[in-house]
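Retro notes (design track)

What went well: tokenization of the new backbones is finally stable.
What didn't: we kept losing track of which sequence belonged to which structure.
Fix going forward: every design gets posted as structure first, then sequence, in one message. First example under the new rule, 302 residues:
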């Protein structure tokens, strides 16, 4: 069983009458890419700011490496790197010079600058001014900044926000590479596809409350909210079996294609039932989508 690296314990924070975070609790284990998922305004950024001791929660606490952030503040954050929203750099200085200033402030060896630029794929652009960088390159430079202190835990708040598809792919690939090198990552996002493609575990929050938590694979496979397309003949016989199958919560037929709602784990049983009934099955195409799952939990709030 993996050791817990970050633990959120009954965290709450209000701004006036609005409760941004409401009794939030979850654990992140070493080695996870943890998706922190919710629509804009769900409380993700507020929770992250509390994790980084940028704001004080009304109640509850966060422990990092078993050390209380509320009690020890910045000393609890040793071994943590973070990128909150868009990184801010001196546009007329080079990538290397920007990181050099930050390294001096944080008492980090200058040799580390070359290492992190190589990690994020910017080693060959180290002397170029940041004003010439694309937004995706700036995000990667922001991640390089977060890596300067050689963290074990990396907290990324909406790291692909505002990026074009190419930039999103670059940052997503970098996150997966960092995880393979042993860094635990908390990835906050409202982009469902990003979490589905990148994360191993996810917590879904809405209106400041935890709605669901678990491995991405298990949550997608256990849910019966996803559409699966089935091509089967004869149509009338297949329709009758699918309509009365207890494995299915919804079925419709259009142009010879059945659309059913069924948990992925039950697909093999349904296939067996169709074949046993002498129904010719030519295709079964899961249309599993994290978006469907998200909307089933949060309604129209996305």
């Amino acid at each position: 069983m993996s050791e817990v690296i970050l633990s959120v314990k009954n965290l709450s924070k209000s701004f006036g009458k609005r409760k941004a975070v409401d009794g939030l609790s979850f654990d992140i284990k070493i080695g996870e890419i943890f998706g922190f998922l919710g629509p804009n305004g769900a409380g993700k950024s507020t929770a992250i700011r509390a994790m980084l001791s940028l704001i004080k929660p009304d109640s509850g606490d966060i422990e990092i490496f078993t050390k209380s952030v509320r009690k020890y503040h910045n000393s609890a954050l040793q071994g943590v790197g973070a990128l909150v929203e868009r990184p801010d750099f001196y546009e007329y200085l080079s990538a290397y010079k920007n990181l050099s200033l930050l390294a001096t402030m944080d008492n980090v060896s200058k040799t580390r600058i070359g290492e992190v630029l190589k990690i994020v794929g910017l080693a060959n652009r180290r002397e170029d001014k940041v004003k010439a960088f694309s937004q995706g390159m700036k995000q990667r430079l922001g991640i390089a900044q977060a890596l300067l202190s050689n963290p074990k835990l990396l907290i990324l708040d909406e790291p692909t926000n505002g990026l074009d598809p190419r930039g999103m792919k670059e940052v997503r690939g970098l996150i997966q590479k960092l995880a393979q090198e042993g860094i635990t990552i908390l990835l906050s996002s409202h982009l469902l596809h990003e979490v589905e493609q990148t994360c191993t575990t996810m917590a879904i929050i809405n209106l400041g409350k935890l709605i669901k938590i678990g491995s991405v694979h298990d949550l997608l496979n256990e849910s019966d909210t996803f559409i699966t397309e089935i091509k089967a003949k004869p149509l009338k016989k297949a329709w009758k079996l699918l309509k009365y199958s207890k494995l299915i919560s919804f079925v419709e037929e259009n142009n010879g294609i059945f659309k059913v709602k069924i948990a992925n784990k039950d697909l093999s049983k349904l296939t067996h039932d169709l074949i046993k009934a002498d129904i010719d099955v030519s295709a079964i195409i899961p249309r599993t989508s994290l978006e469907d799952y998200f909307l089933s939990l949060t309604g129209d709030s996305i």
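Added context from the reviewer: The chain is about 35% helix and 30% strand.
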